[in-house]
Each structure stands twice: as structure tokens, then as C-alpha cells.
Amino acid sequence: MTRRIDLWWVVGVLLCLPLISMALMPLSDTSEPRYAEIARLMAQNGDWITPWFEPGKPFWGKPPLSFWAQAVSFRLLGVNEFAVRFPSWLSMVATVGLLLAFTRAFFDKRLAQWTAIIYSSCALVYITSGAVLTDPFLVLGTTFSMTAFMMARQFPTLFWRYGFFVGLAIGLLAKGPLALVLVVGPLLLWLLPDRGRMVYVRALPWTRGLLLTALLSLPWYVMAEIKTPGFLDYFIVGEHFLRFADPGWQGDLYGTAHEKTHGTIWWYWLQATFPWGLFGIGLLLLTLLKKGGCNTIRQAVISANISYLLAWALFTPLFFTFSGNILWTYLLPCLGAFSLLLAFGWRKWVEGSQWRCAVNTRWMAAVVPLVLVLLSLFAYVSPNHFKTEKGLIHFASQQAQAHSLVYYVDERPFSARFYSGGAAELLKINEVSAKLDNSTLPLLLAIPKKHLAEVFHELSVPVQKRYENKRYILYETRPGLAPVVLSIMAN
């Protein structure tokens, strides 16, 4: 009985462990604090239509669903790391719930438990479940659609029959038309070879369902274009077509292109599925080498349920194989199906009385959570080893002088904007001298270490070092100090 441990405890622990990192890990540049600052501005200004990259500059890169959730969380829980990450965690828990319901309906409870364990301990899932990103909301939408498509025929309740269309709306508001591609693509792969599978299509209320999707998602797109004309052209053409087709796309208004060699997505797949991806590859090779293994795989693939999971699991990496402008987070929508397939394949390998051997794989589920919890503890104790301005801004805010406003020289990280509540100012290097000449009070200058010599050449008053982190040194201008201090600091 001890070997047949109730795996719900394992599932529960895995789902709750990210809460530790969410509270301890500071926001590190660039993605997390960038999205957190957009959400903070939304919560502060009450503008629920247009996300703002910074005051006066709209953010056209993503729809607002994640920012809505994060802004609401700020208002309920305060402006902090845990609050802004909490909606991503809720999305992950909801996604696991959908996978559990789907697996129990088409397979059994034990397989559902292992699917949840594998999924929630994959590196990409575990990391993004406690991160400020839009992807957890996208995967919630695509998973809702993919599970509801099959469930609607077997369980024709309103939840499942209309869940497919609600999932599309979630995806459209979380990431945009890409969500349609990641749902329709695998469905076509699965439906086209067998016309008999059209019974699943006929189980859905397409007219009313698509109207529901439109009512939930299109109003925001219309209002966003009216409020900031040009949004649709940039978002639809730029973010969806040019970003996919042009690896070196230079039109990105908010970052840089992620230019990679075509096919890099499969290397990302190994990272995203760690440690289970390597285990799955090994299991597949062992099955092929086993007597009758090819026939076993062939029989499994013929199954409607397994072939559906294969289409779901393979479409996303195949689709992005032909794009060189990619991130590893793009793989998140396919990991639910991968987790179920791996759980199913492992059970087939040790089926019957040998199922107890599967318990020995529990240690694999601990690898990623253990590393991330330890990393979070280290980050909490020594934040200055990470690319975050939390410590520097906190130090500056504790200064007694009311004029201790931080000026970031040459570049101002998103984490500085977030932790200062937007108060951290930006000074270009050629503006430093004029700013100091016009100020009779001490100022705090956060100077990039890589530009120290260049900035010191522009300084016209003495400075004193006050704080140092991974990327910046904080200096305080001291008009009353002797000029020799400047030369000492410059050296």
C-alpha cells in the first residue's frame, strides 16, 4: 500500500511549490518587470482598454487579458511580486484541472494523476506558472479548447459544448490570432485523415459558439484600434506575420528580434520538457527496440484518442520549426498533450503488476522544483547577483533626503521603473552635465558599470559611491565635497 501512494498529495505539492518562488524571487529584467510595469500603470490609471508601455506610449505587442488580471491582483493584494505573478499561477492550476478532467474521462484517475505530475514539473510549465508572462493565459485558452472539443461529444454539457469557444476567446485576448492557429492546426491534422471523426465537429454549437467568441473578444480589438489608431496593423501584420516570417524583423517597437536558426524550437523543446523530454525519448527508443515494439506503437497511434494527443503535441513545434524568430515559451501550449502521452507510454511499458515501478519516477518530478526553490532562496538573500534593481531602489528610497530621486544614466531598466513606482528618471549621458549644473541639491545617479568612464568624463561635480549591484553603481553628487573625490572615484 505504501507504494500505491495517493498521488494527489504529489500533485498538490507540485502545484503549491511555485508560490514560494513567487514571493521570494525579485523581478529580473527584462520580460517580467516590463509586463509588471504595464500592469501597474493599468492599475494606477484605470485605463482598461490600452496597455501602456510607458506614459504616452501604447503597448501594441500583446492583448490585455494578462494585464487585466495582474492589475486586478495589484488592487486586491498590493503592488508586489507575489500579486503580479498570482494570476499566472491561477492559470496554471486551471490548466491542470482541465487536463485532469480530460484524462479521467478518456483514460482513468491514475493516468490523470501522472499527467498532472509530469505537466506541472516540466521546466517551462513550472517556471511560467510563477512568472509575469502572457503565455500561461494563452495555454489556458488553447487547453480549454482542445479538451472541450473532445469532451463535448461524450459530456454534452454547456460547460464543454461552449468551452471550446470560450477557450478561443481567452486565447484571442491573451495572445491574439496565434491562438486560433494553435487550436485549428492540430484539429485539422487529426480530422483530415478520417472523416468519421467529424462527429466531434458536429457536437459543437458552431453558430452560437463563434458568436460567443466574437462577443467576448472582438469589442476590445475595435476599442483598442479606435483609441490608438495603428494598433491592428502593427499587431496583426507585424507581431503575427512579420515576426514569424522574418527572423531579423526590425519593426519590433518594444524589444529586439529573437533571431534563431530554423529548427531551434526542437532544442527549446528539450529544455521546456526537462527532465521528462529526455525520459520520453529514451522510453520511445526502448519501445522500438523491444520485440513487437513497432507494432505496439502503430496500434497506439491508430487509436483516436492517442492520435488526437499526437496532433496536439506535435503541431506547435512543427509550426515553429519554420520560424527563426522564436522563444522557448512558444512551446507551452503543446506540453499538456505531451505529458499525457508520456504518462500513457510509461504505463504501457510497465503495465500490469509492474506499474509499481512507475512510482520510482517520482524523484524526477522534484528536480525542477528543487532547483527553482533553492534559486529563489538565493535570490532573496543575494538579489544583487541578478539583473534586478529592487535592492538599489529600496536603498535609494530609504535615504532621508526628500530630493533622493534616482536618475538612471543612459538606460533605465524595467525593474527600476516598477520598483520605483515610475519615479526613477532617465538621463542620457550627454544630459548629465547640464542636469548637475542646474541642481544645487545632491542627486542619486545610477551609472551602468560598462559606461563608467564615459559618464565620469561628463560629470562636473564630485560624487560619492553609495550602492552597487550586478549592473549599476549608485553615486550621490556632493556639491560640498572637494573636487579630488571625483578623480578618486573615476579611478
From TrEMBL:
Transmembrane regions: 7-27, 86-107, 114-139, 159-192, 204-222, 266-289, 301-320, 326-343, 363-381
Q: Where in the cell is it found?
A: Cell membrane
Stored Pfam families: PMT
The membrane topology of this protein is: Multi-pass membrane protein
Keyword vocabulary terms for this entry: Cell membrane, Glycosyltransferase, Membrane, Transferase, Transmembrane, Transmembrane helix
Instruction: Indicate whether Transmembrane appears among the record's keywords.
Output: yes
Q: What is its main location?
A: membrane
Domain ArnT-like N-terminal span(s) in chain numbering: 31-235
Q: What is this protein's record name?
A: Glycosyltransferase family 39 protein
